[in-house]
Amino acid sequence: MGLQWQANVGRFDQVLRIGIGAILIWVGFVDTDLIGDRLIATLVGLFGVLNLIAALLRVCPVYTMAGINTNNPDD
Which of 30, 49, 54, 72 has its CA 20 to 30 A from that of 60? Predict the structure, then answer.
Protein backbone atom coordinates (compact mmCIF):
# COMPACT_ATOMS: atom_id res chain seq x y z
CA MET A 1 0.00 0.00 0.00
CA GLY A 2 2.13 2.88 -1.29
CA LEU A 3 1.42 6.37 -2.44
CA GLN A 4 0.62 6.73 -6.10
CA TRP A 5 2.25 9.76 -7.69
CA GLN A 6 -0.40 10.96 -10.11
CA ALA A 7 -0.66 14.50 -11.40
CA ASN A 8 -2.83 16.34 -8.90
CA VAL A 9 -1.83 19.96 -9.61
CA GLY A 10 -3.96 21.78 -12.18
CA ARG A 11 -2.76 24.45 -14.63
CA PHE A 12 -3.97 27.43 -12.59
CA ASP A 13 -2.45 25.95 -9.44
CA GLN A 14 0.77 25.27 -11.38
CA VAL A 15 1.05 28.89 -12.55
CA LEU A 16 0.43 30.17 -9.02
CA ARG A 17 3.06 27.83 -7.59
CA ILE A 18 5.64 28.95 -10.16
CA GLY A 19 4.99 32.62 -9.36
CA ILE A 20 4.93 32.18 -5.61
CA GLY A 21 7.95 29.87 -5.71
CA ALA A 22 9.97 32.39 -7.72
CA ILE A 23 9.08 35.19 -5.31
CA LEU A 24 9.98 33.06 -2.27
CA ILE A 25 13.31 32.06 -3.83
CA TRP A 26 14.05 35.72 -4.54
CA VAL A 27 13.19 36.78 -0.98
CA GLY A 28 15.00 33.86 0.64
CA PHE A 29 18.19 33.65 -1.41
CA VAL A 30 18.68 36.79 -3.53
CA ASP A 31 17.36 39.82 -1.64
CA THR A 32 18.72 38.89 1.76
CA ASP A 33 17.99 42.31 3.28
CA LEU A 34 14.22 41.66 3.43
CA ILE A 35 14.52 38.96 6.10
CA GLY A 36 17.06 39.64 8.82
CA ASP A 37 17.36 36.09 10.15
CA ARG A 38 19.43 33.90 7.81
CA LEU A 39 17.76 30.66 8.95
CA ILE A 40 14.26 31.98 8.25
CA ALA A 41 15.39 33.35 4.88
CA THR A 42 16.82 29.95 3.95
CA LEU A 43 13.60 28.19 4.98
CA VAL A 44 11.55 30.63 2.89
CA GLY A 45 13.83 30.01 -0.09
CA LEU A 46 13.60 26.23 0.34
CA PHE A 47 9.81 26.43 0.49
CA GLY A 48 9.96 28.31 -2.81
CA VAL A 49 12.13 25.58 -4.33
CA LEU A 50 9.67 22.91 -3.16
CA ASN A 51 6.80 24.87 -4.74
CA LEU A 52 8.68 25.03 -8.04
CA ILE A 53 9.38 21.30 -7.96
CA ALA A 54 5.73 20.52 -7.25
CA ALA A 55 4.67 22.84 -10.08
CA LEU A 56 7.07 21.34 -12.61
CA LEU A 57 6.21 17.73 -11.70
CA ARG A 58 2.51 18.61 -11.23
CA VAL A 59 2.51 16.43 -8.11
CA CYS A 60 2.04 17.78 -4.59
CA PRO A 61 2.66 15.26 -1.80
CA VAL A 62 0.51 17.27 0.61
CA TYR A 63 -2.38 17.20 -1.87
CA THR A 64 -1.90 13.44 -2.21
CA MET A 65 -2.11 12.88 1.56
CA ALA A 66 -5.13 15.19 1.87
CA GLY A 67 -6.93 13.70 -1.13
CA ILE A 68 -6.97 17.01 -3.01
CA ASN A 69 -6.81 17.06 -6.81
CA THR A 70 -6.94 20.34 -8.76
CA ASN A 71 -5.91 18.65 -12.01
CA ASN A 72 -8.55 18.80 -14.72
CA PRO A 73 -8.10 16.15 -17.42
CA ASP A 74 -9.22 18.72 -20.03
CA ASP A 75 -6.19 20.97 -19.31
Answer: 30
